[in-house]
Amino acid sequence: MVATLLAPRPLPLAPLVSWTILLAPLGAALLIQVVGIHRRRLSATLAIGALLTSFVCTGWVFLQALHNPAVLPFELSISWISLPGLTVPFGILMDRLSLLMTLVVTGVGSAIFIYSIGYMADDHAYSRFFGVLSLFAFSMLTIVLSNNWIELFIGWELVGCCSYLLIGHWYARPSAAEAGKKAFLVNRVADFGFFIGILALWAISSPLASERTFHFQALQERLPGLAHQGLIPLAMLPLIGLLLFCGPLGKSAQFPLHVWLPDAMEGPTPVSALIHAATMVAAGVYLLCRAFWLFEHLPSVMTTIMWVGASTAFLSACLAFVENDLKRILAYSTLSQLGYMVMALGLGGPVAGMYHLTTHAFFKALLFLAAGSVIHGTHEQDIWKLGGLLRPMPWTSGAFLIGGLALCGFPGLSGFFSKDEILVLAHERNLALYWLGTLTAGMTAFYIARAWFVAFTGKARGHPHESPPVMIGPLVLLAALSIVGGYLGIPRFLGEHGGAFHWAVAGMSLAVVAAGLVLAWLIYGKQAISAQQLVHALALPYSFLQRRYYIDEIYAWYVAVIQQKLIAGLCAWVERHVIIGLAVNGTARLTQDMGRLIRLCQTGRIQTYALAFLIGIVWLLSIPIRH
Amino acid sequence: MSEAVFFYLFTTVMVLAALSVVLNRQPIYSVLSLLLAMFCLAALFVMLGAYFVAALQILLYAGAVLVLFLFVIMLLNLEPEALSRMRLFTLRTAGTLSALVFFLALSKILRSAGQPSTFPNPSPSSGTVESVGRLLFSTYLVPFELTSFLILAAIIGAVTLAKQHPHE
Amino acid sequence: MITLTHYLVASALLFAIGLVGILTRRNVLMILLSIELIFNAANLAFVAYARAWGDVGGQVVVFFIITVAAAEVTVGLAIAVLLSRQLKTLNADEISLLKW
Fold this sequence. Notes:
The structure holds 3 protein chains of 3 kinds. Chain A is mainly alpha-helical. Helices cover 73% and strands 3% of the residues of chain A. Chain A has 25 helices and 2 strands. In chain A, helix 3 runs antiparallel to helix 4 (126-145). The longest helix of chain A is centred in the last third of the chain and has 49 residues, at 551-599. Chain A is globular. The termini of chain A are far apart. Residues 1-5 of chain A have low confidence and may be disordered. The termini of chain B are far apart. In chain B, helix 1 (2-23) runs antiparallel to helix 2 (27-47). Helix content of chain B is 76%, strand content 0%. Chain B is mostly helical. Chain B has 6 helices and no strands. Chain C has helices at 4-24, 28-53, 57-87. Classes of the chains: A mainly alpha, B mainly alpha, C mainly alpha.
């Protein structure tokens, strides 16, 4: 094993600790498959133990880095594939970006793993659930810690696979199986472009075929020089950028490939919290940060990213207005917040994006876990069939309230700071996006308040009961993080010292959020304005939103008509008439006809053969005579 | 001079008999014509000094082979061949033409092959039973013994083939 | 003066007549008879050469040929008998069991 340490003063034990972080969840996943598949307690212990080990190791590296900033970044690399003209390393790149992301993944992940003990207690496939969850943790850490594009892509596909397995955890339910399939297929479409982008980047990484590389740092150091010398076709770079952006487009569920995320809520709630809110869907944002050195030099790509993010933020917030399923409301909220992050990246603010990613991981995981607790206590997730949960489920309600307030940016909570960073950035760079973002913030406040007022206040329905302590514990922990997330100095850790607090922006967003909250209270809390009449008055946009902009219908139409009928029909025609008809049967028919022709020589009359024999002999005999 | 007379006499009769073998429509006449051709051939052998072979020719062909043919023909009670005129014409033409071509090629090759300059009269002792027998049991001993195997195989083959199977 | 060539041409004639028989006759027995003609054409050539070279070996070969011819006729006639018994015909045109 060849380990290279780039750090000026290498951290002792760094290789061991880093590999432990990455491989502990993989070990747990394998062990669960091998020995734990029928032992519930053992599998849960293995999964949680492994992730906590990773978390502790990450925390140790984090403390070392705080103590002595010079230990970061460091890199460990082993040569994995080494062929003439193709070298792929497998390694760990530990810098501040990946360290923060690793902390989020292992920290929030641990909380959610523990929560799952309670939530999944009655599930028949308990061990399988923890096995796939561990595999997911490993895959996610592979993305976060990888030091090259191929390793990242492997992790990227593995998380997609785990996402598929976990969405379809209750595969006996047709809707869950369908949702898993949809998530997988939509991500395939995006990853196709992504992988082409990776290969294109590799292809331009050096004029010499033998020196091409997938390595992040080598690319980062090499490409500007190559571009300067004119050895890279400059027209190709924006195309490569767009192709690479396809990855985040699918994984972070940006418009128009967002369709899989709401359906992914068919999976168990811890999965929604961990994978489809806190970590995996944030991988796209992480990727944009990781390759930010490339994107920041491609203004056209940046503009695209920015507008895709902003439109996702706005359009998904609109969809959350009319959604009645508690988890799906949160899913649209996730989409919207991811849109914020992507917009921040597009505006040139990776730190703001990562900041929001981190706080979002806290409060969205909190919201999901609280929603899961509600579902656990009531077996109901339609907000109109819920109500009056405050008294029977005080802890859950409190957690949801804190999460919701953090989400809409209540002053002092984590979401307030990180969202403000993005809005300040937008205010500086693009006013149109600023207003769109602020409007979205107000809408966020409105839809989360709607969920709160409808589901948690009002008349009690049924007999809800509070969840067990093993589920409340993680809620409390995440609630605490959602509150203090803004004071941890995350932007400073990422190396941005931050401008002055922007009072105008903060005031504006506060006003909008307050408006949203009050409006929601008037309609759903005090019921001063009738929701029914509102729906009647806005019938057209309401139905448009209810059908989710008809995007699913468009895709269905595309698949059914263009793909299945037109393209598949064309392929079938080619297959039937050209390949089978001409190539396969044609060859057979040609052979047959030739055979029929040659068969005429076999008359079955012995004299004909003798005659042919004789002609041959005469011909042979004539040779010596002629010469 | 007398050699030429005898040669042309026997050769002409032989060729005519051979033609009769081929052209006759009654198999039984064909066999009898072949018998005549064999006698002429034996006479040519005698002229060439191969007395023993001439005797063999008559004994084996006339005595054994052709009698066998006669037996079979009578056994099977063959009728004359019937063929459409057109087909008969085509085949005869093609067969005769190719045989003619073959004859021309063959005679040309035979003439161009290495030949002794002289054609001596046969020595009285060359074709006797003794000389042929000596050679047969010394130089050609192995082929001779192998021939017995061939004949054995032919006998077994003929018996096996022609045997009447009881269930048929 | 009769030379070797005379005998050889006589042999070739006999051979060609045999060929005509093989190629034109339908009856299996007639084909066998024509084959006998061809055997004898070869015999004549061998004996003529034996005299020309003064070598009795040529006559020994004729002895072998006659033996082979006898064996061939035995088996051939057995097949003919079998054919007429099984297929009720000796016409070579009608015997086409090996045809497609």
